[in-house]
Amino acid sequence: MLRQLGGAIFLLIFTWESLTARELTREDIQGVLQKAGEQAETFTLPENDYKEEGKRAARQSAELYHSQAFQQKIEEEQKRIQKCFIPAPDETDAPMIMENKKEKTQEQSEEMGQEEIYVFLSSSVPLATVQNWIKLAAQTGSSNISFVMRGIPGGLKGRNSWLRDVVKKEPQCHSGKTSCDHYKVKIAIKPSLFRKYSVTEVPTLLYLQRDKGWIMAGGCPLNIMLERINREAESPLLITLIKKMRNGW
Q: CATH code for 76-247?
């Protein structure tokens, strides 16, 4: 059918040039269609040079998708999404409350004197997750949110590269060719905070409110984790930040 239609279009264009200014008649059209049918019998499509290569790529994709390792990744991602948006009734992954009953140092007193949000990260966290958290934090324009690293990703040589990538507004932008726009957020190297709050898993979110704090680990979106924490914290600041994150979508 496609061959006949293609032949008809070609012959119709070709015939149009050979006709006079008069309108096409039914006989003209029937003649074109008849010629198209005749041409279709001898018309052949060129051989696809990439046929075997395409088959190999399709087989490799199918093997990867059905592999045990890939299926395990899918299952883990499904569980992560379910935990983020459909929390279990027993709330086993709810934010852990930390009460500072010890005598506070001056540094601790300053931290507990206002509301602060610390996001503990490392370069082992998927780049897309870090970029999403930074985007949401930047949307709030809040100075209360700080991203904390234990060390410099990749050492001194890798520092600029990793930091540039995570704060890019357009991940596909390459600064070597053009100037890239970046989100303005606070990122600090503070291994002491990891030790102080016993953070052993990343990403982890810590919210400090006066003499109390809530800590929660996991790769859920930043606004979702703040919502979970604010069920107990009941902070007007968190409500404002969450609204700004939502409105930016």
A: 3.40.30.10
Instruction: Tell me the C-alpha distance between 209 and 198, whole Å.
Output: 18
Determine the Cα–Cα distance for residues 141 and 144; give it in Å rounded to an integer.
9
**Alpha-carbon distance 91 to 94, whole Å?**
5
Measured between alpha carbons, how far apart are the two ends of the chain, in Å? Answer: 47
Angle between helices 68-85 and 51-66 (to 10 degrees): 60
Domain borders along the chain are 2-42, 76-247
Q: Report yes or no on whether pTM surpasses 0.85.
A: no
List pLDDT tens digits, range 174-222: 766 568 889 999 999 999 999 999 999 999 999 998 878 999 988 888 9
The Cα–Cα gap between 200 and 150 comes to 10
207 residue type, one letter: Y
Query: Which tens digits make up the pLDDT trace of 93-146?
Result: 556 655 543 334 444 444 444 899 999 999 888 888 899 999 999 999 999 999
Q: Which residues, in sequence order, are CB contacts of 116 under 8 Å at separation 6+? A: 144, 146, 207, 208
What tokens does 242 get? Answer: 């969450």
Q: How would DSSP label each residue in 134-145?
A: HHHHHHHT-TTE
Cα angle 205, 106, 234; round to 5: 40
